[in-house]
Write a structure and sequence with these properties.
The chain is mainly alpha-helical. It has helices spanning 29-43, 47-63, 72-89, 92-106, 117-129, 133-150, 156-171, 175-193, 198-216, and strands spanning 4-5, 8-9. The chain has one domain: Tetratricopeptide repeat domain (Serine Threonine Protein Phosphatase 5, Tetratricopeptide repeat). It has nine helices and two strands; from the N terminus they run ββααααααααα. The chain is elongated, with a radius of gyration of 32 Å.
Length: 250
């Protein structure tokens, strides 16, 4: 069943594109193998084993750090990865708390560090699935602004946010701006990833949904303005002036 679109149902539900979370280079082969195992368990929907692998990898990584704390990028990755798993399990409150903590961690990164956008994007997805669309839009737009400034408008990660923002605007019946965002994302995905890539397929489908919604909008003729009032023409009074009678000359 489609989502409600201001009192009526969408023909289909627009889909988000998930962030591709990439782990920083691990300091040992053992930690690398544990991270690969975590990703495998996650994709196989074995979430408890995926989470256990993440915790094991983080403990081993932390033990190698001189001050007992991993680098900021490493801490940010593990928070977002754990938040993804909690969200997949259905523990939205726990996931939201982790993503908020990840935002606090990202604040320690340099202002021009692209990873600052990641927790905003994760929170946007979480709010979207909770149908908290205004909050989702705020988070996605913040992530978009960061990536446009650092990566540009033609980057794959930036266009991922174009799709996700477009999905919200489609639900909110802002059809023209959502079509523009989908079209931009589709152009980049087709060029960089090809016609059959999952990201290309998702945004192409979303664009098709938006076009279908545009066709259902009733077209009405514009209301003509009222005709101008007729000018009032004053008529002459009709009284003729009497000619003065002069004396006749004899």
């Amino acid at each position: 069943m489609g989502k409600m679109l201001l009192g009526r149902k969408l023909s289909a539900v627009p889909a988000l594109i998930h962030e591709v979370l990439v782990a920083p280079p691990a300091p040992t082969d053992e930690i690398t193998r544990i991270l690969v195992a975590s990703q495998t368990f996650y994709h196989d929907l074995v979430y408890d084993r995926a989470l256990a692998c993440l915790e094991d990898a983080l403990d081993k990584w932390t033990s190698l750090c001189k001050n007992g704390e991993p680098p900021i990028e490493v801490s940010l990755y593990f928070h977002c990865a754990c938040g993804e798993i909690e969200e997949s399990i259905g523990k939205d409150d726990e996931a939201l708390a982790i993503f908020k903590a990840a935002q606090c961690i990202s604040a320690w990164l340099p202002e021009d560090h692209v990873d600052i956008a990641i927790p905003h994007s994760h929170m946007g997805r979480l709010y979207y699935h909770a149908q908290r669309y205004d909050e989702a839009l705020t988070e996605f737009r913040r992530a978009k602004q960061i990536r446009e400034e650092i990566l540009g408008t033609d980057h794959l990660d930036t266009c991922t946010l174009y799709n996700n923002i477009g999905a919200i605007l489609l639900i909110q019946e802002q059809l023209k701006p959502c079509v523009e965002l989908f079209a931009k994302a589709l152009e980049v995905f087709q060029k960089e990833l090809g016609m059959e890539h999952p990201r290309t397929t998702i945004v192409r489908r979303n664009l098709s949904i938006a076009h279908s919604e545009l066709l259902t909008i009733p077209r009405t003729l514009p209301t003509l303005p009222p005709p101008p009032p007729k000018p009032v023409i004053e008529k002459p009074s009709g009284k003729k002036k009497k000619k003065k009678k002069g004396k006749k000359k004899k």
